[in-house]
Amino acid sequence: MTTSVPQHEPISEPRAQRQTPHEGNGGAPQANLSTELVPARMLNEFAYCPRLSYLEWVQGEFAHSADTVDGRFQHRRVDRQSGDLPDADSAEESHTIHARSVMLLDETLGAIARLDLVEVEGRRATPVDYKRGKVPNIPERAWEPERVQLCLQGLLLRRNGFESDGGVIYYVGSKRRVEVAFDDALVSRTLELLEGARSMAAQGKIPPPLEDSPKCPRCSLVGICLPDEVTFLNGSSHVVKPDDVRRMAPARDDALPMYVMKQGAVVGKSGDSLTVKVRGEKIASARLLDVSNLSIFGNAQVTAQATRELLDRGMPICHFTYGGWLKGVTSGTGHKNVELRIQQFAAARDVDRSVAIAREIVTAKLRNSRVMLRRNHADAPSAALGEISRLTRSAREAGSLQTLLGIEGAGARVYFSNFGAMIRSEESAFDFRTRNRRPPRDPVNAVLSLLYSVLMRQAMVSAIAVGFDPYLGFYHQPKYGKPALALDLAEEFRPIVADSAALTLFNNSELKPSDFIRRGGAVALTEGGRRAVIRAIERRLDSLITHPLFGYSISYRRIMEVQARLMCRHVLGELEKYPAFTTR
After folding, report:
1. Cys-Cys crosslink for 47: which of 145, 164, 444, 491, Cβ 3.0 to 4.6 Å?
2. At residue 383, does pLDDT exceed 70?
C-alpha cells in the first residue's frame, strides 16, 4: 500500500528540527520495530552512525546542541506546510508545483519521510532537502547519509506514481543547490541501508560506539552515548587508559535547579521565563533555558501554564514538604525508552543481577566514607579506618542483599561514631553523637536529612532523564512510595556530596544556632537555614573534580547523570558490570 500522509499528522522530523525528544515517530520505541516504517531521517542517522540511530529511534533519546538548534532555525521556512502535492495521474505537464513539508509513506518499501520541498512538473517530481551546513569538499559534493536520505525520498515519490530520477540538496551555509542522481548504485546502497536499519532495530541490541571518531565531539547525543567511556570500560585496545577518554560533553550543566521556598508564592510563565510572585508582586524570575528542574517547598503553587511548559521541556517539578521531605515528582508522559524499563524489571527480579549491582554500590559507599574520614578527621582512628576497609572487602564477597544491608549498617555505625570529630565548630549546639531522623533531634541531623533529600531529588531527576523507573531499585527493595532506584544512585554520593556539604556549613560557620527551631524534641531549619543548606549542596554539586576512571574534569552533578547512564548501559547488557563511583 502506498499513500500520502495528511500534513497535520507529523511522523518524523529531521534531527536538527525536532524541538523535544518526544516529537515524531522517529524516536518512539515500538513493540516490534522490524515491522515499523523506517523514517528517512533515521536512515540518515544509520548511515552516519548506527549507534546514534538506535539511540534516537529505538530508545527515544534526544538532546539539543548548537547545531540542532541552528538547523531548526534554518528549516523554519520549509517547515511551514504549503502547496498541494497532486496525484501523479492528475498532474498537468504545463504546471510547476512547489509543495513544502510533504509526508509520504509506503508499506511495501517499509519507509516514511517528510520531504522539505517537492518540485513537480507533470509526473516528474524532484525532492529538495535542506541542510544547514556548506557544500562538502568531496567528489560527490554531498555526504553519503544525506544522499541516501534524499534517495529514499525519491523512492517514495516513485511509489506514489511519480517519476523521480534525481533530487537536490540545498546547503543553507553555501546557498547552493547540489543535484544528486538516483542511479542504480545509490538506489542499491539506500535499500541495503534500509534493510540494515530494520535489522538493527529488530535485534534489540545497541551497536557499539564509534572508536576515536571525529563525528563524536559535535554529536548532540554524545553525553548520552558516552562513546569513549563505554569503549574504555569494555577494555578496547584503542581506549586503554584514562588519557584516551575524551571529555566531549560539558563539564558543568548550563541549566540548574530552581528552588521556591517562599510560602504562598506562585510560579508562573511569562514569555520564555519562569516568574515567582507573592500577592501579585514579582520577587524573582529565571529564563527557562537556565532551569533544569523546579523544586517547590511547602505551600507554593505552580500555574497550569508553567506546569505545561516545564513538562513540554522535560523538566520535572519536585514537591517537598516545608521541612524538606521529598513527597513526589511531577513529570511528563515519561521517557520513551521502554527497552530499558523492560530490562530494569527483569534485572530487579533476578537476585544474582541485583546483588551484583548492590555489591558495587555498597563497596563504593564504604570506600567514599573512609576517604571522608581520612580527609576531614583531625586524627582519624586507625581502628575505624581498618574496620571500614574490612567491611569493604566483605561487601565485595557478599552473596545476598541481606548480608549487604548488614555490612552497610555496620559501616554507617563506624562512620557516624566518628562524624562528630570532623565538625570543628565551637558551637556546643552542633555537637553530634549519633545519626537520627524522622524527626531529626539535633541541628546536625536536621541538616543531614535535608541534604540527603536534595541529593535523592538529584538522583531521581537523573534516573527519570535516562528512562529508568525510579521506584524499582536493585539494592533498595520496592516499597510503596519509596524511590528505590533513586536511593541506589544516591548511595555512593552521600559521603562525598551531602556529608561534605554539611561539614562545610558547620566548619565555615555558615549556620548559626538561630537557623534552627526546636519543637517537642525535634529540630527543624528556619527558612534562612534551608536556603544556606541548599546553597551549600548546590555548590558541591557544581564543583569540578577529576574523574578517577576517565581522567577528565567534571562536576558532581554531571557525574550523577553519567552514573545513571552507565547503570543503563549495564542493565541493557552493554557493560559487564556497573562501575560505581569512588573518589581518590
Report:
1. 145
2. yes
274: number of CA atoms within 13 Å, CB side?
Answer: 29
What residue type is assigned to position 388 of the chain? I
Secondary structure in 3-state letters for 419-479: CHHHCCCCCHHHCCCCCCCCCCCCHHHHHHHHHHHHHHHHHHHHHHHHCCCCCCCCCCCCC
DSSP, residue by residue, 287-331: EGGGEEEEEEESS-EE-HHHHHHHHHTT--EEEE-TTS-EEEEE-
Question: 245 near 232, Cβ under 8 Å?
Answer: yes
For 267, 292, 434, 443, the CA distances from 428, given in Å and listed in that order, are 40, 39, 15, 11
CA 499 to chain centre: 26
- Residues 409-462 have pLDDT tens digits of 999 999 999 998 898 877 777 888 888 878 888 899 999 999 999 999 899 989
DSSP category for residue 515: G
CA 57/CA 28 separation, integer angstroms: 6
Write the pLDDT tens digit of every residue in 133-158.
Answer: 899 999 989 999 999 999 999 999 99
Q: Could you count the other beta carbons within 10 Å of the beta carbon of residue 72?
A: 19
Q: In the chain, where are the structural domains located?
A: 2-203, 213-249, 256-330, 338-571
Contact 365, 495 (CB under 8 A): yes
What global pTM score does this model have?
0.79
| Triad 563, 565, 566: Cα angle to 5° | 65
Just give the CATH number of 338-571: 1.20.120.920
pLDDT at residue 73 tops 60: no
Helices then strands, counting H and E runs in the chain, come out as: 18, 19
Long-range contacts of 209-212, Cβ-Cβ distance < 8 Å, separation of 24 or more: 209/51, 210/49, 210/51, 211/236, 211/238, 211/239, 212/238, 212/239
Whether pLDDT at 31 is above 50:
no
What does the block give as the cell for 360? 558495587
CATH architecture of 256-330: Ribosomal Protein L15; Chain: K; domain 2 (3.100)
Q: Is pLDDT of 314 > 70? A: yes
Q: Return all residues near 264 (Cβ < 8 A) that are at least 6 apart.
A: 278, 279, 299, 300
**Would you say residue 242 has pLDDT above 70?**
no
| Pairing between β-strand 266-270 and β-strand 256-260 as defined by DSSP bridges | unpaired
Angstrom distance (rounded) from CA 140 to CA 44: 16
In terms of DSSP bridges, do strands 111-121 and 96-106 run parallel, antiparallel, or are they unpaired? antiparallel
- Cis amide leading into 136 (omega within 30): no
H helical segments located in 183-273: 184-203, 222-225, 227-233
